[in-house]
Specification:
alpha/beta; six-stranded parallel beta sheet; elongated
Length: about 300
Amino acid sequence: MSNIGFIGLGIMGAPMAAHLIKAGHDVFLNTRSKIPNDLLTGSATACASPREVAERADIIFMMLPDTPDVDKVLFEGNGVAAGLSKGKTVVDMSSISPMDTKTFAQKINALGADYLDAPVSGGEVGAKAASLTIMVGGPDAVFERVKPLFELMGKNITLVGGNGDGQTCKVANQIIVALNIAAVGEALLFASKAGADPAKVRQALMGGFAASRILEVHGERMIKRTFAPGFRIGLHQKDLNLALNGARALGVALPQTAGAAQLMQVCSANGMQDLDHSALVRSLELMANHQVAEG
Ligand code: NAD
């Protein structure tokens, strides 16, 4: 059994930490919000700061919203870096900037500690079911050491490459998901406006080449109008900004990603940034003055 730290206990982090606790590890917890009561069982301990987590744990996981949050948790006064010592490992499972991740890894390595970036896909459902896809960047030997812990949280676990490559893979994932949501939204809106039952259209399409997890899960959300998160629009905007900033730096055009980012901006401008990203369909509905289904 290892001493494990977990910082950031929101929609994703709380169920992920719960799997590590359930497996019998000693888990040291810290989060900005209140630690959920159901996590504070036998082998879990609340810590006052990220620094205390790093002092008491050998492998420290983070599941935080955005790049500045990870920067703060790692390097501010009472941050992880202040509590690290040689041989410890930091594993960032948040979805953040690939470029900044390389810098964070170098700074942590300079303290004698190892670093993995290991963002995930699969959402709250995957976090609860321990079936997350985990995309890892970092040294092979460190990956092998942490892998048994990843296996408590996920199923499809891939070492993509060096530090930053896990985050790059996650950005690619978010491009595909955003464009898929926009495609499903446009298709269901078109069908509904034409007078077809969008539920029947979704059911028919689920058997063909257009079938996808997004059509299945988010198509149903659009029809049933269940937009509670899940994955917040504000967080997906963050990911698309990572894609577009990266593309600008690389001199690459991502026109469809730019379009999806604009639709998410419409949602945020209309107060929907905390709804699930399937609510991207609302931006299309506003333009069409027509809803896929009654809400
Ligand atoms: P969330 O907002 O629900 O949780 C974030 C947690 O971080 C909160 O508990 C907050 O208290 C904590 N936190 C923030 N700043 C902190 C600080 N300075 N010190 C300690 N704790 C701090 O977000 P989430 O939905 O769990 O997402 C977390 C990450 O996972 C994001 O990068 C997101 O893009 C990614 N992600 C989310 C999903 C999803 O479906 N929700 C899916 C895949 C990946």
